[in-house]
Design a protein that fits this description.
This protein is of the alpha/beta class. Helices cover about 35% and strands about 25% of the residues. The protein has helices at about 15-20, 65-75, 100-110, 115-130, 145-160, 170-175, 180-195, 205-215, 225-235, 285-290, 370-390, 405-415, 455-470; strands spanning about 1-10, 25-30, 40-45, 50, 55-60, 80, 85-90, 95-100, 220, 240, 245-250, 255-260, 265-270, 300-310, 315-320, 335-340, 350-360, 400-405, 440-445. The chain binds flavin-adenine dinucleotide (FAD). It holds the Pfam family NAD_binding_8.
Length: about 475
C-alpha cells in the first residue's frame, strides 16, 4: 500500500497536462496502456509508428492556454508548422484552409462562391479571436467560489458577445449565406464534425466560429508523432504505465485505489477516464450514481491506418468530402493525416497515414466475430477506394500495411468507446460535467468535461481544474 497526495488516472491530453503542471507534488500518473496519450498517442505496429487519433496540434501561440501551460511546465514541443492546415477535396474541387484570410477567401470564392463569403468568414474569424482574449474562462460547480467564478465568466461572455451568444449556427448561415449550395454546406459541416463532433444544426454561432476558425491559427505537425509531445510533457512525472486502476473506494478523506499491480491511498483523485466510463470504477453507490447521470454520447471514430510506399509529395492533412455517407459511419467525409516526409520516426520507409471519420459505438455492438470483421473490412475498403479515387498518383499496390480501428478497438486499448463529449449547445450547457465533483478531492479532466475536445478544449478544462486544485491545497 502506497500513500500519495494526487493520483491521476489516465495519460490523455488532460491527464498529462494536469500532471505536468503538478509534477513537483507527490503525484502518480496511472496509464492502462503501454503507450502514453490515449486518443493522442502514437503506437507501433508491423514496424511502423502510427498516430492513434489526434494528428493536428493547434494552439501553440502566444496568449493561448496551450502555449501558457507548455511555458509554465518548461517544455518546447518538437513541431513543424503546416502551412496548409487542411486541403479539402469535394468532387475534385480543392479549397486550402490557410491562415492568410485573403488567400483563403480567394480560393473559397473560386469554388464555393457566395456574395457574402467575406462577411461570413470575417465574422467567424473575429468571434474566434475575441473568444481567445477572454480572461475569465471558467466552469465549475459545487461551491460558492466555483459558482462565483463561473458567473463572472458568463458576465464576461455576455459583455463580449451580447445577444450574439443566443444566435444559432444554422440561423446565422441562413441569414448571411442565403441559398447556400449543398456542396458548400457540406464543406462547412464536415469541418464542424471534426472539431465539434456535430454539424451546424446543433450549434451556437459562437461554437461554430471556434470550430471553423482553427485553421486561421497556426497549425502544427508533431515530429515523431503526437505521442512524443505527451512523452515530452511527462518527462519529469512519476508514471505507472501498463497499470490500470480497477476500483476506487472513498474512505473518510482518502480514496483507496486498487490497480492491476498495487494498492494506493490518495488524498486527491483526478479521473482522465471518459465521464461515461467512470461510474464503474467506484464501489461507493453515491459516487456511482453521480457518474451515471451523464448519459453516454454515442459519437465514435472509425480509423484506418496505412503505410504508403510512394514518392508523391503529400501535405499533412486532407479532408475528402463525398456525396454520400460512408457505410457504418455518420459522416460523408474523412480526414487524412500524413506523416511529414522528413519525419525520421514516422516516415522511415514510407508515409504513416491515419484516416479518421465518425461512427457510432452501437454500429459495432452485438456482432459475431465474423460479422464484426466483415463490417470493418467493408468500411475500410470503402474508405480506401475513395482515398485512391482522390489521389491519382497513388495506387493500391503502394499500400504496404493496412488495418483499422472501431469503438471496440478504442475500448480495448484506452477504455473508451466514444470520442469527444457532448457538444456544448444551449440545451447541454447546464448538464455539462465540470472538473470538480460533489465529492471532496475527486476531480475530472479530459474531453468529456468542459470545455471539450482536442488540445484547445481540453487545455481550457485543465486550467480551470488547476485553479480548483490549488484553491483547495
Ligand atoms: C480519430 C481522432 C482524431 C482526432 N484528431 C484530433 C486532432 O487532430 N487534434 C486534436 O487536438 N484533437 C484530435 N482529436 C481529439 C483528441 O484526440 C481528444 O479530444 C483528446 O486526445 C482526449 O484527451 P483526454 O484527456 O480526454 O484523454 P483520452 O484520450 O480519453 O485518454 C484517457 C487515458 O486514460 C486511460 N485510462 C482510462 N481509464 C483508466 C484506468 N482505469 N486506469 C488507467 N488508465 C486509464 C486511457 O488508457 C487513456 O490513455 C481526435 C480524436 C480522435 C478519436
Amino acid at each position: 500500500m502506497k500513500n500519495i497526495d494526487i493520483a491521476v488516472i489516465g495519460s490523455g491530453i488532460g491527464g498529462s497536462l494536469i500532471s505536468a503542471l503538478n509534477k513537483n507534488k507527490d503525484l502518480i500518473l496511472f496509464e492502462k496502456d503501454k503507450n502514453l496519450g490515449g486518443c493522442a498517442s502514437t503506437f507501433k505496429r508491423l514496424g511502423t509508428y502510427f498516430n492513434a487519433g489526434a494528428t493536428t496540434f493547434v494552439g501553440y501561440e502566444n496568449n493561448h492556454p496551450i502555449k501558457n501551460i507548455f511555458d509554465e511546465v518548461g517544455v518546447v514541443p518538437n513541431i513543424l508548422e503546416s502551412k496548409i492546415a487542411i486541403r479539402t477535396i469535394q468532387n475534385r474541387k480543392i479549397v486550402d484552409r490557410v491562415a492568410n484570410f485573403e488567400e483563403f477567401l480567394t480560393n473559397l470564392n473560386s469554388v464555393y462562391y457566395h456574395k457574402n463569403n467575406r462577411v461570413f468568414w470575417k465574422t467567424i474569424k473575429e468571434i474566434d479571436e475575441r473568444f481567445w482574449t477572454l480572461k475569465k474562462v471558467y466552469f465549475a460547480k459545487y461551491g460558492f467560489q466555483a459558482y462565483a467564478k463561473t458567473a463572472l465568466f458568463v458576465v464576461e461572455l455576455f459583455k463580449e458577445f451580447g445577444f450574439m451568444l443566443f444566435k444559432t449556427a444554422e440561423g446565422y448561415i441562413n441569414e448571411v449565406l442565403p441559398n447556400i449550395s449543398k456542396e458548400y454546406k457540406a464543406f462547412i459541416n464536415s469541418q464542424l464534425l471534426i472539431t465539434l463532433q456535430t454539424t451546424s444544426k446543433d450549434l451556437s454561432l459562437l461554437a461554430m466560429s471556434l470550430g471553423l476558425a482553427y485553421p486561421f491559427h497556426k497549425v502544427f505537425y508533431p515530429i515523431g508523432g503526437m505521442g512524443q509531445i505527451i512523452e515530452d510533457l511527462l518527462k519529469d512525472v512519476n508514471i505507472q504505465n501498463k497499470e490500470e486502476v480497477i476500483s476506487i473506494k472513498k474512505e473518510q478523506n482518502r480514496y483507496r485505489l486498487i490497480s492491476t499491480k498495487d494498492e494506493y491511498l490518495a488524498s486527491k483523485v483526478i479521473l482522465n477516464s471518459a465521464i461515461f466510463e467512470s461510474s464503474k470504477l467506484f464501489l461507493d453507490e453515491n459516487i456511482k450514481k453521480y457518474y451515471d447521470k451523464f448519459s453516454f454520447s454515442d459519437q465514435s471514430a472509425f480509423v484506418v491506418y496505412l503505410k504508403l510506399d510512394s514518392k508523391e509529395k503529400l501535405l499533412h492533412h486532407y479532408q475528402i468530402i463525398l456525396k454520400e455517407d460512408i457505410p457504418n459511419c455518420i459522416s460523408n467525409s474523412f480526414f487524412v493525416s500524413v506523416s511529414d516526409i522528413n519525419d525520421e520516426k514516422l516516415s522511415r520507409d514510407g508515409y504513416s497515414i491515419t484516416i479518421s471519420t465518425h461512427s457510432k459505438a452501437i454500429f459495432w455492438e452485438g456482432l459475431t466475430k465474423n460479422e464484426y470483421e466483415a463490417k470493418k473490412e467493408f468500411t475500410q475498403n470503402f474508405i480506401i477506394t475513395e482515398f485512391l479515387n482522390n489521389f491519382d498518383n497513388i495506387k493500391k499496390e503502394n499500400i504496404k500495411t493496412l488495418f483499422s480501428a472501431t469503438s471496440k478497438t478504442f475500448y480495448r486499448y484506452i477504455n473508451r468507446s466514444n470520442c469527444g463529449g457532448k457538444p456544448i449547445t444551449a440545451k447541454t450547457i447546464f448538464q455539462l460535467p465540470s472538473c470538480n465533483t460533489p465529492f471532496d478531492g475527486l476531480y475530472n479532466v479530459g474531453d468529456t468535461i468542459f470545455a471539450g475536445q482536442g488540445w484547445p478544449g481540453v487545455a481550457i478544462g485543465v486550467n480551470v481544474l488547476n485553479k480548483e486544485l490549488n484553491a483547495k491545497s
